[in-house]
Recover the amino acids of this structure.
């Protein structure tokens, strides 16, 4: 128990340190601000430019880490992740289509509609994946991932057609959703989506004991008195909402949903009562770190999706080798 | 204690469980039958994993149906034939989750528990269930189920179902398991589905033989299994059946 407490302190401390570094330290190509004697211009940079982005990163990281873990648990598949399953891409496609429609009928694309279209996309993706996986082979590990891949391919085809037929300004917007960026996030959006995230996170944590049973497999969980299908449907809706929130804020950011849950489970074990709160912290830490890198490593801001994919690709291989070496799927 | 009335259950167009009518008292029962006879389906029905098309089942005074899963989990345990392990839980973590205890409480419980000693699990507690060998994994899951039906933890417990519990176990653990289950049979109903016919022929315990989805015979003493049953149901040639000096039937070559 002692060591768990120690790990917990270190985890929280990491987030705090990253938060401070990200806020003040400019790295190679950006402006470093000393925390003592902040000038007025620097105050603007800190509060209006950096802080919103860092807060967005915390929210997005939380959403992605939690939804990644939940998808892995609910689909009994350590490779599941909103990015890989196509949940994020369909959500972002819906956001883009929503933007196009609202633009056409000339209504302001409010944050409410943004989250709504994103959630609809995410839920539709989960439904499609389940229907495909059911037909492909009894929701098996391979069939779920394959349905995810086919869905992602389909959506990327549609996105590519959209890009092909779009002009310069539209192209910039599309890129934003497809590669991930926190540039456009307003304070009101942050508050609104933050409220949803907090609510959903609390709802998830209320179910941690039931979620633990899912580790034993569906049938065993049933034997221990769990209504598995009901819980799965409920939790999938929550997980999709979280993935949708992340997309609504920052577009498609892959691999955080894979990286954070695996790291957290390696450090803290599997008990969801501990894992879920730690995921919030670790997800936030990862995302703050990546946002900081994307902002400071090059003279131009890097797309977040580019950074996560660069770090996530090798990590995905690591997971593959750890879980599936000599096993087939 | 266990009451099964007129249960019918259609599994596929070609296979169904028909006319199950059975009352089981306390004791250690052996559920025998060839592959595909319906043993696992029978256990699934009894546990509540599957619902029968007609008829009803009671465990004590709890009706077996999908609405009662919570109550059922307090009166019966079921070790299924195959276990899934997608996540690298430790054995200790698995026990903590299934017993609804904290990991430190599991440690204290395991320090001095017959089941953990008998199955030599103390040194495996911190290993991950995905890294265990076949036999070790079987022992871990056996411990999970046997601790679940520990009467000190669940006083109303009355039914333990085991589907091929001997798979992968080495001889000494098999022996321990047999002795433990025989003892347990004095307090609750234990139903073991397995293929160790010689074992059943040696033990003076009740047995249920099923074939083609029907109960072929219910015997109060497994030593009474007849030669004709072994030949007709289990498709054994007469030449491999012999009798010991005490007059107990044995199968040679298995």
């Amino acid at each position: 128990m002692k060591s768990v407490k120690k790990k917990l302190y270190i985890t929280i401390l990491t987030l705090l340190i990253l938060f401070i570094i990200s806020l003040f330290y400019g790295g190679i190509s950006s402006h470093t601000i000393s925390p003592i004697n902040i000038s007025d211009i620097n105050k603007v940079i800190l509060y209006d430019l950096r802080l919103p982005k860092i807060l967005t990163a915390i929210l997005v990281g939380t959403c992605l880490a939690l939804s990644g873990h939940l998808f892995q648990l609910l689909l009994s598949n350590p490779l599941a992740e909103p990015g890989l399953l196509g949940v994020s891409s369909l959500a972002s496609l819906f956001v883009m289509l929503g933007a196009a429609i609202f633009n056409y009928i000339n209504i302001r694309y409010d944050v409410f509609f943004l989250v709504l279209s994103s959630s609809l996309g995410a839920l539709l993706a989960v439904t499609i994946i389940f229907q495909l996986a059911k037909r492909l082979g009894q929701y098996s590990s391979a069939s779920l991932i394959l349905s995810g891949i086919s869905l992602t391919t389909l959506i990327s085809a549609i996105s590519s057609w959209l890009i092909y037929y779009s002009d310069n300004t539209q192209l910039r917007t599309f890129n934003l959703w497809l590669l991930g960026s926190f540039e456009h996030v307003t304070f009101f959006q942050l508050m609104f989506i933050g409220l949803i995230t907090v609510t959903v996170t609390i709802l998830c944590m209320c179910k941690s004991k039931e979620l633990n049973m899912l580790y034993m497999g569906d049938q065993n969980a049933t034997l221990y008195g769990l209504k598995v299908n009901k819980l799965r449907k409920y939790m999938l809706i929550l997980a999709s909402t979280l993935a949708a929130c992340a997309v609504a804020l920052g577009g498609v950011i892959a691999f955080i949903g894979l990286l954070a849950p695996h790291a957290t489970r390696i450090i803290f074990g599997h008990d969801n009562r501990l894992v879920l709160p730690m995921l919030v912290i670790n997800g936030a830490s990862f995302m703050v770190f990546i946002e900081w890198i994307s902002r400071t490593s090059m003279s131009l801001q890097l797309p977040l999706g580019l950074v996560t994919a660069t770090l996530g690709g090798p990590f995905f291989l690591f997971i593959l080798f750890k879980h599936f070496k000599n096993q087939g799927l | 204690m266990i009451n099964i009335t007129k249960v019918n259950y259609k599994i596929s167009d070609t296979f169904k469980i028909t006319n199950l009518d059975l009352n089981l008292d306390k004791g250690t029962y052996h559920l025998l039958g060839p592959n595909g006879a319906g043993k696992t389906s029978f256990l699934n029905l009894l546990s509540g994993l599957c619902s029968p098309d007609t008829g009803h089942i009671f465990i004590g005074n709890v009706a077996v149906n999908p609405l009662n899963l919570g109550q059922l989990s307090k009166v019966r345990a079921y070790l299924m034939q195959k276990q899934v392990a997608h996540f690298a839980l430790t054995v200790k973590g698995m026990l903590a989750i299934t017993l609804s205890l904290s990991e430190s409480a599991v440690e204290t419980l395991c320090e001095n528990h017959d089941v953990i000693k008998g199955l030599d699990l103390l040194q495996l507690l911190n290993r991950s269930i995905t890294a265990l060998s076949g036999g070790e994994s079987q022992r871990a899951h056996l411990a999970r189920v046997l601790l679940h039906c520990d009467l000190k933890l669940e006083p109303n417990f009355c039914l333990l179902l085991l589907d091929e519990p001997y798979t992968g176990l080495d001889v000494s653990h098999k022996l321990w398991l047999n002795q433990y289950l025989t003892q347990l049979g004095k307090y609750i109903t234990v139903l073991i589905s397995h293929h160790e016919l010689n074992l059943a022929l040696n033990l003076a315990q009740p047995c249920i033989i099923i074939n083609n989805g029907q109960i072929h015979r219910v015997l109060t003493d497994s030593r009474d299994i007849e030669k004709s049953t072994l030949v007709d149901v289990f498709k054994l040639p007469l030449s491999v059946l012999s009798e010991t000096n005490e007059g107990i039937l044995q199968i040679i070559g298995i």
